[in-house]
Design goal:
The chain is of the alpha/beta class. It is built from 13 helices and ten strands. It has a single domain, classed as TIM Barrel (Alpha-Beta Barrel), CATH 3.20.20. α8 packs parallel to α9, α9 crosses α10 and α11 runs antiparallel to α12. The longest helix is centred in the middle third of the chain and has 21 residues.
Amino acid sequence: MDVEQVERTAKELVPPGKGLLAADESFGTIGKRFEAVGIEANEETRRQYREMLLTTEEIGEYISGVILFDETIRQSTSDGKTMIEVLQEQGIIPGIKVDRSTVDLPLAPGEKYTQGLDGLRERLEEYVEMGARFTKWRAVITIGDGIPTVKCVESNARALALYAAFSQEAGLVPVVEPEVVIDGDHSIEHSFEVNEWALRSTYTAMYEQGVHLEGTLLKPNFVINGKDASEQASVEDVARYTIECFKRSVPAAVPGIVLLSGGQSGEDATAHLNAMKSMYDNLPWEVSFSWARALQGRPMEIWGGEEQNVPEAQKVFQHRARMASAATTGDYSREMEQEQAA
């Protein structure tokens, strides 16, 4: 492992004012999102959509890295440039999702395990040759009746740690994502407990695998109540519970925490991140974003698969990236959203 290389890349991914775009939706996920807004999902429409996002002007001012899907990293834009080349021209670091999605955890109803360790070393070598500099792996933890179980939390933690070790061996920065999903009616207090457990288990497993923490990033969810809970936490409570959970669970050696949006709207995720940065100073890690739907939701609707809608969709995408960037420094306000409408 080239320690200096992974440390340098990790720091470059979390400079003040920038975060990550997660453009790594699987075929199934992007298919559902396309269907919801009336877009036919096929290889060409996916390529056109990712090209629209990645060629948006000035996004390099707000986005430091983009997580790509295996299909996308192999594709080119309409003028013949590879997606990697498009990102590099904007000063954006290319990354790649390397897990192979979730499956039902054996003998554990309602729980998931992320697969993809088989053949990972060889796939990473290929991605390095293509120009990728960081990777991502997502684990899924669900809160429900009697779950999560110890076997779910610990088996996913071990997989995340092994993935991180393989990535660093290849000279790539692992973005470690133990997501506690917001499905359910649980309270924010219960969410806090499960998130702390999942994070502590993940870092214990990473220590046991010899992962160099200074060359990693964490991609966690906000600590928030279940989406079906009768009481919804305030923006300030979400910020407070989230940061206090991280202070208990995330080693100071980790250079950055890039939060996922987890199904929240762009405005809500931005407000939560902004509150965290406004309420807390001198945290040991840089705190930023790694968002998919919170950045892409509205642009996808506007585009609708139609070429004539690209300029307006790119305008909205750039706006959302700028709002997220402002939140990373605590300078966002809801009033700024009106700038786009004007």
